[in-house]
């Protein structure tokens, strides 16, 4: 079998692959090309699979890219807390009744998280 099985590991959901690649990019000192990402994944994905996932993430505006040689080099647009905040905003924006969603969210917060949110919003809010 040999080389034919490279990159044919267990199938994972696209979101899981994106998170894995995002982690590689966030740990890097700078932008990475698809080949560098594939190498850091230890050959778990084929080069073309990495290109496909990076392109999809760029289309979703999760990554920026700059030309490097014959490829692009990719970097995340934000850090992990920033991505979590973006996901929270997108869920909120999908709902028609923002007040009800925010009220339910606030009701579900622990006392410590509620206090932290109050501090972050500040006295001027």
TrEMBL record:
Name the record gives this protein: Penicillinase repressor
GO molecular function terms listed in the Swiss-Prot or TrEMBL record: DNA binding
Signal peptide: none
Family: Belongs to the BlaI transcriptional regulatory family.
SUPFAM superfamilies: Winged helix' DNA-binding domain
Pfam families (alphabetical): Penicillinase_R
Single Gene Ontology BP annotation: negative regulation of DNA-templated transcription
Record keyword Transcription present: yes
UniProt keyword annotations, A-Z: DNA-binding, Transcription, Transcription regulation
Top-rank lineage group of the source organism: Bacteria
UniProt KW Nucleotidyltransferase keyword: no
InterPro entries noted in UniProt: BlaI_family, WH-like_DNA-bd_sf, WH_DNA-bd_sf
